[in-house]
Design a protein that fits this description.
Keywords: Cell inner membrane, Cell membrane, Membrane, Transmembrane, Transmembrane helix, Transport. Its main location: membrane. It is a multi-pass membrane protein. The chain is mainly alpha-helical. It has a single domain, classed as MetI-like (MetI-like fold), CATH 1.10.3720. It is 80% helix and 0% strand. Helix 2 crosses helix 12, helix 4 crosses helix 6 and helix 9 runs antiparallel to helix 12. The model has no long low-confidence stretch (mean pLDDT 85).
Amino acid sequence: MSVWARIAGWAALLFGLLYFIVPLGGLFEFSLKARRGVYSLDAYAKVIGDAEFQATFTYSVVMALVTIAVGVLIVVPTAFWVRLKMPWARPYVEFITLLPLVIPAIVIVFGYIRLYNTSSWLPMTGSVTGTNLLLAMGYTVLALPYMYRAVDTGLRTIDVATLTEAAQSLGAGWIGILGRVILPNVIPAVLSGAFLTFAIVIGEFTLAALLDRPAFGPYLQRIGANKPYEPFALSVIAFAITWACMGLIQLVTRFSKHSKAAR
């Protein structure tokens, strides 16, 4: 590689870093100007001390955990069965899991409202529990491409057929094989999908707003329309949560590689 090619590569990398870091730096710097003339964390203190922030953030965290649990229960057995017994169906399953990337969330939520309104055969929107369940299902659909890709990648790294045959020879049933053999071997992949799901749920607006749920995304939009500095502090917090999830994915992946190398 020539010297000029190296210089061009470093220049492109530096430009990319500045492209992302400079706007975020400006965002963070403005969020510190709540007190005139000095930098302070007043905006962050007001946001964190806001009872509505605490309630909406807690609600979104709970919904994220429910979404992760539902996603694991759906995706892990499906990906396992497709890889073990139905490899011919893999292109079709992959196509289905990619549909949430091309179907807007607003189409999904209006479909839910149309099918499950109070005058339908299953009036789920008529109760808080039913609406929360609809929201969890919607979040699961939105996170499906990321969860399935992560789990499928994890299953590629292990010999599913050999592990299944070994477990069956020891008398394990299908639930035991999934819970005690397959799942522990794809935990890093499941955690990667879980962190991506968490980041998606925390920042999601459309489903929560149209289903009228007290989630973090609609709260972020409401406070952005009424206050000057707190929205920027909230944006920094949201970025920090997303980046923390990305960092955890990297740590889990690196730890998994080290564990396999140690074996």
